Amino acid sequence: MKSLKIGDLIARVPIVQGGMGVGISMSRLASAVANEGGVGVISAAGLGLVYKDYSSDFNKATLWGLKEEIRKAREASKGIIGVNIMVAMTDFANLVKTAIAEKIDVIFSGAGLPLNLPSFLVEGAKTKLVPIVSSARALQVICRQWLAKYNYLPDAVVVEGPKAGGHLGFSNEQLADENCTLENILPEVVSAAREIGETNGKEIPVIAGGGVYSGEDIHNILSLGADGVQMGTRFVATDECDASELFKQTYVDASKEDVQIIQSPVGMPGRAIRNGFLDKVKEGLMRPKACPFDCIKTCKVENSPYCIMLALYNAYRGKMSHGYAFCGSNAWRVDRIMSVNELFSTLKEEYDKVTQ
Asked: Does residue 64 lie within any of the structural domains?
């Protein structure tokens, strides 16, 4: 596989590990991926619950947790470490400022358009800024805004297709459209990135994710013009994944029929593994009494069937009867848990078979 270059950062393997909250991708997983030559990513979402012993103030604990996770990842790896910070998070600005102050290598930001992301860069900062988009149009809007206001262009862009896990940047109608695929969207994003980059004298690598599962998938996506791939689902079923063993086993046990689209309380569709908790939600048996965290801007307690932060935190801890697992479309293909090192070796072998 070719290397992935993001500014002056070079990942010798063009694999970015997707940022998965709450607690699924933290320092242990991110550092393991970075040590294999990929880009390891810590998710900032929900760290306030993981670090609730530090402070009962959710946002305060989240900022502390982010610092701690970056520090731990740095101690465990000399590779490339990034963080994923959702635009929809209430404390988005402070999380970005904290990540930059901690000299994180890359900030990946989606779940909304990160139109003001460059405004948080300080003099001398080397942090790379990478928006996550679902279309060429979204990339063009971001680039126009960043150029006009900050004279800055993305250091790379992640394009996520409709087969991704977690919250999805597509409508239910688009998710049902057979023509709405990463393979169809990717060339348009690559074309836009190349045109904008050439016009302004800056290379904008394209990283594609959503349904990328095997080494053959990596080869196929790179052949469509992508410079790298983003993978989340495969990294859940690893020894180093920060989630509980019960969470990981949910992937191993899932059937194809269990992988389903749900409507999240934050107002977006998402992909998850069906379980008893989600069945109860469908039956209308869940109803939060109050919002304990005020973590997502678009989440309104009066319209929410459950608190998504608590549900995902419970799942991270293995309390699956009180939560559920987000996943990509290929989660049902996971048949065992392996080390990150073995996963990288497997992906390389699969990739090499296709290229020989």
From this structure: yes
